[in-house]
Amino acid sequence: MEYEENEKDQTITLIAGEVSHVGSEIVMRDPTPRPFLKWAGGKTQLLPALTERVPRKVRRGEVPVYVEPFVGGGAVYFHFNGRFPFRECHIFDVNEELFLAYTVVRDRVDELIEVLRGLGDEFLARDDHARREHYCEVRTEFNRTRKNISYSAFHTSWVERAAQLIFLNRTCYNGLFRVNSKGEFNVPFGRYKNPTILNEPLLRRDAEVLQNTYIHSGDFAESLPYITADSFAYFDPPYRPISRTASFTAYSQNGFGEAEQERLSRLFSFCDSRGSLLMLSNSDPRNTDPGDDFFDRLYAGFHIERVPARRMINSDGSGRGGVSEIIVTNYRPAVTVPLVPGPGQEETW
């Protein structure tokens, strides 16, 4: 799928690519860069609204650096880096498995494809019962070898681990990444009829896009040295739950509560003082409590908008549906009527 933007009127048209399946693989003509992993909290549904609000300077190629302190599955990163002419990008995530996977796709995509092809062919050759057993075997091996993996320096074992992660992600229940208190992946089998385990054209396209990108493992605050007057940063933190039963804020062993949201808002304000161009999205607490002004208070003085969205990750399908999300910028997007003017920022962005 590709979003095509008209610079003159800033409208977006969705274009479907040509797709066909060959065994466990997918063949796509001229694939658009997009996530190679399913990921809770992915921003595919929000891409049109985010793209419309990208600063004009970025569109004109006048901002050389893109920074994303919470890359997650990378929907926004791949979309932005695939269409805007950044000289370099810096992506961060506290999840070490993501750091490893992105690095392998960027630097060892040929080897990754071969290992993943073997996993996919072996899985799809089995019946439903044997597929479940094979899934559990790969999951057990993935957890068993974790203690032997050094995430600080590349090792050839990273290739197999990245392939296992993609395999588990494509065959587990609902495409979730969830770990227990021991850091072990514990999502059950998904029982898909014919899952696409290897998408070779997409992996190769993503590897191309990643070539201008520095991949970092760590807390969002470690992105601070790279968010300067020459950069555009998009913040996509784990969302504040919109209900008491929503619980997708813990993508790793570390949670992300209100204290972390407040710490992020202070970093956002500091980066604004540097002259950086900033965009942030989060859940809108007013979906369930019209009087909840948590984010309105945190980002008072910046431009805040509420846009329609659709939550796609929920164990109960009835819990997925239309909600609004907030987009915060430190500039006034030309596509919208200003609601909360940013501190001294004008539409010249």
Q: What is the total tally of β strands?
A: 11
Which structural class fits the helix and strand makeup? Answer: alpha/beta
Euclidean distance between termini CA atoms: 28 Å
Biggest β-sheet strands, sense, barrel = 7 strands, mixed
Approximate helicity band: 25-40%
Overall average pLDDT: 84
Portion in beta strands: 15-25%
Compressed to H and E, one letter per element, the order equals: EEEEHHEHEHHHHHEEHEHEE
Shape: globular
Instruction: Please compute the radius of gyration using only Cα atoms.
Output: 20 Å
What are the salient characteristics of this protein?
disordered C terminus; two-stranded antiparallel sheet; 349 residues; 10 helices; globular; disordered N terminus; seven-stranded mixed β-sheet; 17% strand; alpha/beta
Could you describe the 3D structure shown?
The structure is a single chain. This protein is an alpha/beta fold and 349 residues long. It contains ten helices and eleven strands. A seven-stranded mixed beta sheet has the order 7-6-5-8-9-11-10, with helices on both faces. It is globular. The model is unreliable at 1-30, 245-252, 313-320 and 336-349 (pLDDT under 50).
Question: Brief overview, please?
Answer:
By secondary structure, this protein is of the alpha/beta class. The protein has helices at 47-52, 56-59, 75-83, 96-107, 109-124, 128-144, 157-171, 200-209, 258-273, 294-298, and strands at residues 2-5, 12-15, 19-22, 25-28, 65-68, 88-93, 213-217, 231-235, 277-283, 303-310, 322-329.
